Amino acid sequence: MTPTLVQSHLPRAGTAPRVDLGARARDWAEIQERMLVPLFEAVYERLDVGDGTRLLGLGCGSGLALLMAASRGAAVTGVDPSAPERLALARKRLSPDSAPEAAAGAAGGARLVEGGPADAAGPDVPAYNLVTAFQPIGCMAGDSEGLSSLLETAAPLTDRGTPVVLVGWGPPERCATSMVLRVATKLADPIRSAGSWRPALRDDLEEVAQRAGLKPDGSGRVACPFGYADVESAVRGLLSTGLFDAAVGATDKAQVDKELTEALHPHRRHDGTVWMPNVFRYLIARTP
C-alpha cells in the first residue's frame, strides 16, 4: 500500500469512529489550519519563496500553505492521498475565482493531486525546487511512520540539493497543547502504543531526514499559539486534526468532548477565548 503523509501522523489505536468528513474538513480549514500560519511565513521568508519556486506540498490538506506560497509567486503542486474532503476545499481556495491574486502570481499555476508524490510526476512537469511536509510530527508515538518513504518517493522529482522542509512539535514545556493531547492517550486503547503521547524529541526530524537519505541543512523554531474564540471552537478544531480518533473509537465522542473541555479549562481566558502557546520546530534538509 502506498504510504500516506496525513494518515501516518494520526493515531492508529482503537477503532476508527464514524465522522462527518465534510464537517471535519471545514472545521480544519476554518478553525485549525490557520494556527500554523506563522510557521508557513517563517519558512517561506527564510527560503525566499517567490517567482521561480516550484513547490511540492506533501499532505497539503485544504491548501492554506499552498495559497500563501502561490500568492508570493510560486508555482505550487499539492498532493494528499487520504483527505479528499480537504483537497476539495483546497481546489476552491486555489481556483482563479476564489484567489485571483494567487492564480495570477503562480507562473505555473496550481495543481492538486489526490495521491502521492509519484502521481505529481510527468514528462512535462519541471523538477520541483522545494518540498514541504508541514504536518507536524512529535508528541504522538508512531506519528512519523511512513513519512520517510514519502520523502524517498518525492526526492527523485526534485533538482539536486532541493530544500525539503519537515516540521515537528517543540518540547512539551513550550507547547501548552501537548498536555491537552494526553487526553487522546488516556482514552485510547492502552494496549497499543501507536497514538500514545510522548515528549517530542530533539532529533525526531533529523532521524526522519536520515532515513530518507536527506542531509540536514539548518533548522528554526517558530511560535504558533493555538487561539480559539471559545471552548467549543477549540474542541472542534482539535478534533479536526484526527489526533483523537482512537480515543473516540475506544469510548465515544461525548466522552472525548467532555475530557477535552476539562483539559482546556486552564487555558480559558476571562473573555471566554482559549489560548495555548506552542513552539514548533522546522528542519531544512537537502535532497542528494
Question: What would you say this structure looks like, in words?
Answer:
- This protein has 288 residues and is α/β, with parallel strands linked by helices.
- The chain has a single domain (5-175, 196-227, 278-286), classed as Rossmann fold (3-Layer(aba) Sandwich), CATH 3.40.50.150.
- The protein is 36% helix and 18% strand.
- The chain is built from twelve helices and nine strands.
- It has helices at 5-8, 21-32, 37-46, 64-71, 84-94, 100-105, 147-154, 177-187, 204-211, 231-239, 245-250, 253-264; strands at 54-58, 75-79, 110-113, 130-137, 163-169, 215-223, 226-228, 274-276, 279-286.
- The strands form two sheets. A seven-stranded mixed sheet has the order 3-2-1-4-5-9-6, with helices on both faces.
- Helix 7 packs across helix 9 (204-211).
- The longest helix has 12 residues, at 21-32.
- Residues 1-15 have low confidence and may be disordered.
